[in-house]
Design a protein that fits this description.
The chain is mostly beta strands. About 0% of the residues lie in helices and about 85% in strands. Strands 1, 2, 3, 4 and 5 form a 5-stranded antiparallel sheet that branches.
Amino acid sequence: MIAAVEGGIELAGTIILKGGLNAAFKARYHQRKFEANLTPELDLELLLRLALTAYVLAQAGFGWLRSARAKIGRSCKRRSRPAQRFFLSAPFRL
């Protein structure tokens, strides 16, 4: 080998679903009856994380006399909220 060069680009991502479940509950005993109102609410948000990494490896030499140099760089790291938010509310009467 006299010389060799190689390189590459890697795109890695993560999708996150973030949110919670809340339930409002109200109950009472009135006129010999038990009444209850339950309102569960589901709130979800979609998050997206992306990272772009590039590398270059250069080698030169002959036989056991060899030299190598590598360069790795993270050129872009981004976290975005693609405006995807879901909210659901459904009241129940028991």
